[in-house]
Design goal:
mainly alpha
Length: 203
């Protein structure tokens, strides 16, 4: 029961201030289950990356099919290979405290979730998987970045691309240009006002 309570608390909030949306809560829940199953003390950025790749097709679409397969293949080896050395250390960048405000999260994982919500808020919409991916690759010391580097993915290029692209490729963005393209059909002479219709009736 105590573990269940901690799990539920971790799904609802990444820290004391930032609530999670439904999609991100599902990703975090998957990451937390994996951490508990593997005997890890904290949910770290590699756990979040693994859960994100498994659950979000928009995030998988960011990578080539071979890259996504290579990433998942490497991530599943964590519990029997490279991840064993991580079990005795806390994931942080050296600039963060060894213990974060979020129960059960590494400092960098808690920071990534907070950045996810902040990025979504700037765009005025709910947080999406691509927001979390952008946050995970923002810190070069993150374990998620180490995994991506090992898989041969240029994380600097990926971070720059995620920062430059619209928040969600499939989400229509507000743009004043398309409506304007239909205006020439209304009048061939731009100097004419709507009152010209009165004059044309006198022919």
């Amino acid at each position: 029961m105590p573990q269940q309570a901690i799990r539920d608390q971790g799904v609802r909030r990444a820290d004391n201030d930032v609530p999670l949306g439904a999609e991100q809560a599902a990703v975090v829940a998957g990451a937390r289950r994996r951490a508990l199953r593997d005997g890890d003390r904290h949910v770290d950025t590699a756990h979040l990356l693994h859960s994100l790749l498994e659950s979000d097709p928009d995030v998988r679409a960011v990578f080539e099919a071979a890259q996504a397969a290579r990433l998942l293949g490497y991530l599943v080896q964590r519990s029997i290979g490279y991840g064993l050395r991580w079990q005795t250390a806390v994931e942080d960048s050296g600039a963060l405290p060894a213990t974060g405000p979020a129960e059960g999260y590494s400092p960098l994982a808690a920071l990534a979730v907070r950045r996810t919500e902040e990025r979504a808020a700037r765009h005025g919409r709910p947080a999406r998987g691509v927001d979390l991916l952008a946050a995970l690759v923002a810190d070069p010391e993150a374990r998620a970045v180490q995994v991506l580097d090992h898989a041969g993915i240029d994380t600097r290029e990926l971070s720059a691309r995620l920062s430059a692209e619209p928040p969600l490729a499939s989400e229509p963005l507000l743009s004043p240009e398309p409506p304007r393209s239909a205006e020439p059909r209304l009048a061939s002479d731009p100097a004419r006002e709507p009152s010209d219709d009165v004059g044309s009736s006198s022919r």
